[in-house]
# Entry
Amino acid sequence: MDEFHSIQVGDRHIGAIDWEMTPDLTFGTFESWGGRERVRNNSERLYYFFVDGWDETPKLCLMERGVKHAKVVAEIAAPAAMLARCVAASGKVARFEQSFAINDEIRDWLVKNVLDQGATPLVRPVLDRVESEDMGAPLPSRGALVVADTVRLPSAPAFIQDEELPALIRAYNFFEAEHNPQGAFANQLAAGDDESTLLDLRTGLMWQRGGLDIASHRVISRRIDELNAAGLAGCHDWRLPSMAEALSLLEPVMNGKALHLHPAFSKEQPFIFVAAQRKPGGYWFVDFKQGRAFWSSGTIPGGFARLVRGI
# Structure
């Protein structure tokens, strides 16, 4: 069967469907924790069909997927009995796994009835919805806080071995899901002078609320140089946080964005590079989804960054 099929979604012509992609494969392909190396370009988009089984009646959907990007672009008016057979044949799944790969019957039906100038009335575009991220309650001003217990954290780049990490975590009682799940570090966050920044008065640090998109360590370093040259938020000394500085942001309880992080920080950087390497090779990260530190090669799929500087 010809692998190169197209579909018309409203005014959009999507030139190629990826028949190999399934919901199960998307995590290692498009997210952070290293599975299948497939996508190298952050702007690349793949399209695949799947059956959405979350509602009582399953739906056939066309997904647009990329690095840190997932969007259902169309629903296909497919026979309900055919979709139900696909879901039933998938067997018992966990309650949070209700997205199913299509089977041969659905694929054959799509090729015959929908793809390659097929019956476009069966294709129902899903309109964009503008969503604004909840950044939590406004932070207090710097002058409204009195901080008696300040802590100066190590800030220099370092080499850290696996066996050294637990002692660093316990020294400051950082929360870390594996090595100190009972830990808690009390930050004193205040609004920055710029909307893109905030202050931690306890550690004397200014943080980006957001950060840099996923890239290799080399590309991240170049972007930091460019931002410092331009003067991000009027400052020219931004850098990657040390391991201790990044760990200080971990919170024991997940926020409403499913991150171990204060809601004043953006959800768009779920794990970040830190200024620490591991011998014989690898870069360290702090992962706000899992609430832990981990190391990887730092190349593909790379990492995000949240920059910091001293106040």
Summary: Residues 214 and 304 are 4 Å apart (CA to CA). The first strand starts at residue 7 and ends at 9. The radius of gyration is 23 Å. The chain has a mean pLDDT of 88.
